[in-house]
Amino acid sequence: MDLCLVEYEMVKFPPSLLAAASVFTAECTLNGSKKWTKTTQLHSHYSLHQLLECSKMMVSLHQKSGTGKLVSVFKKYGTSKYGHVARTQSPAHFMLEPRFWD
Q1: Model confidence over 91-100: pLDDT tens digits?
Q2: Could you tell me the superkingdom of the organism this chain comes from (predicted)?
């Protein structure tokens, strides 16, 4: 989510959608599946279809976070305080494959 705050292309998404897409992306990363239950849809007011574009962009931003002009978030999460998570390959890279969304 922090990466989205410094990227102009993410301004088009309302904050509530960014939050919901962050939860969805984290769930996909941890579980390896695109699970968005009726309960999460009810509480977030967003369907899986509404999250797709934002979620894909989040994964893409994470993959190129260390190479852009604005690397402050990458540096922050690359420290030992945050377990060097920025330096690891995003386990959600599979989300960028077209067959994942079929």
Answers
A1: 556 666 666 6
A2: Eukaryota
Domain range enclosing 6? 2-64+92-101
Distance CA 91, CA 93 (A): 6
Residue 78 resides in a domain? no
Q: Name 95's Cβ contacts closer than 8 Å, sequence gap at least 6.
A: 25, 28, 34, 55, 56, 59
| Total-model pTM | 0.74
What total of structural domains would you count in the chain?
1
Q: Is residue 86, in this structure, part of any structural domain at all?
A: no
d(CA 37, CA 73): 30
Q: Is residue 44 part of a domain?
A: yes
Q: Would you say 84 and 29 are in contact if contact means Cβ atoms under 8 Å apart? A: no
